[in-house]
């Protein structure tokens, strides 16, 4: 027992070990041991980051911290705690496994706080009342497995950590954090955000393939990789995390992947996003609270939807662990996994394992209930509440990520996506002639797709300012005003946002200032032009389509539950004639334009819009009387 680190020796001797954390990062042959006092902070900006190389702060960021961004939540009052790292040691993995207790974890009174049938009813309500009414594209609703640990909770957590280290695979972090007031133990598959050497990375994971038994059904895996629901689910969270990257990275994020993440009980699909960043890492963490894979999109309204449908606070579920420090050159570093597949244990032995399912327009109640069970399986097995994965799952003879057909199926997912986000571009590489010095104002309707739109317009040559809808500020000095997307019913004349955006559009139309309206902005513009607005029978949330746009078929992505309707390709409006591009089957208006204004129902900035950049270039040509593209400016799609 001479190899025992001080905290483990204290536990073995029945003494209080004090606060500590054990962290194994993906693929590492060692485990990091951090020790130091636990303190609290009010905001992320208050987390200490002193000079000197090494890890300095390990923060336990609860979901309620999202209130820093002004977002809603069921506030459970959980504090923002952090371990002020005073000592850091690396322990070889084999040695730590020898020292961790090899014991069965015993629990009693296990059960979900929300029964299967009740959770299914919540799923139905979210699909009908939220996605169906235009409140967003996808939402994550959680439930929690509750139980009581028998015996010493910390010893049980250490035994669970040992089983996770041995029996789980593919985790980004496998960890145990002991603060004295709580224990977190888990194996999170997903990096939320990291910063190293000026590179910020995010890792959206979505789509869940559940497997049983010792051999993965290869044909079932290939069907999963081609399943429209699973494909679209990943596309939607990719779009949402690109929005975050648009805020924290100077030139937005570049998309790499997709990849297959194989774990002991299930597999996921994932992308990697990367971009250069010079922000303080605490600011990066704040601006990315929290991942759409555990909340939904658009983010701000997803928090409202979660608060409406979840009856309890989330505590640490969907929050992050965040290790902040500095490298040898003194540059700030950040590594933050999402707190999923994680158990929280109180000093009295109360056990909580929260899990959630991503609800999209294709969701079924049975499928989402089953997904919550599958996602909990790994942690529950480590806590004695479920079967371990078979040895072949944790030490596979075959990595399906290396299978040629699996690789081909993954690569095929990128074929319909916008090259703008898949390829590295130098600033100004696709700039339009004559736009140098021209300024655009984007008014955000509570959907940070506007951040991606700002990068696209910037790449085309405009200088872009972005402001929120309650205070768009003066319009003088801008050559173009973009009224952006956002959630909600455009027919609701009493909603403050709809009234404010309508008033802004009325002012813009009356003045003749060049105006581009996107999604919600387009719907409100169409209404002012006299076109009726209609709620779709089936929402167009995360849906790519080939549609006519002013005489040319374009591949574009929709996130909408409402549409304007027209029965002709040209209509007379109060601000002059309007040219309309519409669906020949139902009259849904995909785009419109007139003297000094244009609107599109789809999102040209979305990763789903293969032709998005070309559409924007054409619209700028119409609105600002510029040639379509410069000679070096990418006649490529999207």
Automatic annotation (TrEMBL):
Source organism, top-level taxon: Bacteria
Organism: Micromonospora tulbaghiae
Catalytic activity: chorismate + L-glutamine = anthranilate + pyruvate + L-glutamate + H(+)
Domain (Glutamine amidotransferase): residue spans on this chain: 441-619
Name recorded for this polypeptide: anthranilate synthase
Domain Chorismate-utilising enzyme C-terminal: from-to ranges: 117-375
Keywords: Glutamine amidotransferase, Lyase
CDD domains reported in the protein's UniProt record: GATase1_Anthranilate_Synthase
InterPro entries: ADC_synthase (IPR005801), Anth_synth_I-like (IPR019999), Chorismate_C (IPR015890), Class_I_gatase-like (IPR029062), GATASE (IPR017926), TrpG/PapA_dom (IPR006221)
Annotated EC: 4.1.3.27
S-adenosyl-L-methionine keyword on record: no
Catalytic EC class: lyase
SUPFAM superfamilies for this protein: ADC synthase, Class I glutamine amidotransferase-like
